[in-house]
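User: C-alpha cells for Coproporphyrinogen-III oxidase, please.
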Amino acid sequence: MTESVFWDPLLIQRYNRPGPRYTSYPTAVEFQSVDSDAMEQQAYAQRDPEKPLSLYLHIPFCRHVCYYCGCNKIVTKDTSRAAPYLDYLKDEIRRKRALLQPAADGQLAAVEQMHLGGGTPTFLSDDELVDLVTFLKQQFRFSTADNADFSIEVDPRELRPTTLTLLRELGFNRISYGVQDLEPEVQEAVNRVQSEEMIRQVMNEARELGFHSINIDLIYGLPHQTLESFARTIETIIDISPDRLSVFNYAHLPERFKPQRRINAEDLPPAEEKLAILGHCITRLSEAGYHYVGMDHFAKPDDELAIAQASGTLHRNFQGYTTHGSCDLLGFGVSSISQIGDYYLQNQVKLEHYENCLNQQQLPLNKVCEVSADDHIRRRVITELLCHLHINFDALDQEFGINSRDYLAADIDRLTPMHQDALVDISSAGIHITERGRLLVRNACMAFDTYLQRHEQQRFSRAI
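Assistant: Done. Predicted C-alpha cells:
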C-alpha cells in the first residue's frame, strides 16, 4: 500500500451504510445479561497463565458535559465522589487479582499495557492518581520492556500544573488529548471550549517530559463545521504535530444520548459537506506524512502503530488499534469490558449496580459472551482485514483446521459488489483490500459478520 488514500465521494456514498466498528467480534450487542459472576470465575479459571496482561480502568467522572459525547460518564464538579469510587475500584481489582494463577515461573504474567479512560481520568487529584497507581503496582508485576504501553486520556482543560509531570513519574509513557475542533463557534456549540494556546502548551509540556507517543482526538460532523473551518483546524494540528491522530465521525443520536439533545440538528453540516471534510482531512494528513492506519486512525511512520501494521503485528480490541494483541484484557470500573480467553465480560453500566455487586461480595459482572469456534474464525478474518487489509486462506486452514475457501464461500459471495467495484481482490490465495477499498474495509468485514443481519443497522454508526 502507498501512503496516499484513494478518495471517490460517489463510491463512498454508495457504500456508506451503518455497521459495527469491530472492536470485538462478536460485537457488544451480542453480549447477554447474567445475574451471577459464575462465568467470570470460569473465565479466570480457564485463563492461560502465561499470557501477558493488559489493564483498562474506567474513571467515569467529568466536570463538564460535552454535548456530542456518548461515553458512559457521570458529570459532577463534586471531586469528593472520586474517593468512594476508588475504594470500590480497588475492591474489584483485589478480587480479580486473587483469581489469577501464576505462570510457570511462579509469578503472575507481566502487565504489558495499561490504559486509564473515562470520563476524565484526571478528574482524580494528584494524590489519588499516586495512590491508585501505587496500589496497582502492589497488585501486579508491570513490564519494564521498551515497548510496554501505559497510557491515559486527558482533557486539556482539567490539567493541574503538576499533573503531566506526575503522570510521567508514575510510568505513563503515552497520552491522548481530546481536542475535537479548534474553531470557537464549534467549541461553544458542543460545550468544549479550549484555546489553541492551551493545546500547544500541553503538547509542548508532554514532549519535554518524554512521553513516547502523543495522540490527539478530532471529530468531524459537529455543529457549525464547514470544509473551510475544519481545514483550518487540520492545518493547526499538523503544525502541532502529534504522533497519532484519531478523526472520528460524529453520529447524532439524541434518542440514545441525552446530552446530544442540546445540539441543534440544523447546525450540523449536510452529508455532502461532512464527506468533503473527511476527504480533505485524509488528503491533507497524507500529504503531511501521516500513515493511514485505518478506521479513522493516523500515525507518523515511526510511531509504534504504523510499525506494527507494517510488520503484521497490529491488533484491534476495545481500546481500538493496539500493539499488544497477545494480552488478556482485564477491565476494571463501571462499564469496563474484559477479554479473557474465549470470554468477553462487561461490568455493570450503572454506578449503583456496580457498587451493589461488590457490596454483596460479587464481581460486578453485567453481560457476557463466550466465543464459539465459528466466532474465532470470523474474528480472525475481521481482525486481519482491519489491521492488515488481507486474509490468507492457507493460513486460516492451518490455524483452524478447516477448508476456509468452502467454509467462507457464502461470505465471499457477499463481497461480489465490492469485487466488481475493485474495492477487494479475491483470488485462490485469499482476499485483499485494494487501494480503492481502504476507506471501506469496514464494509468488507460486514460480509463475514453472521450476526449483523439479525439487528437493525440503525444500532450502528455509518461506515464513513
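User: Anything notable?

Assistant: The chain is about 35% helix and 20% strand.
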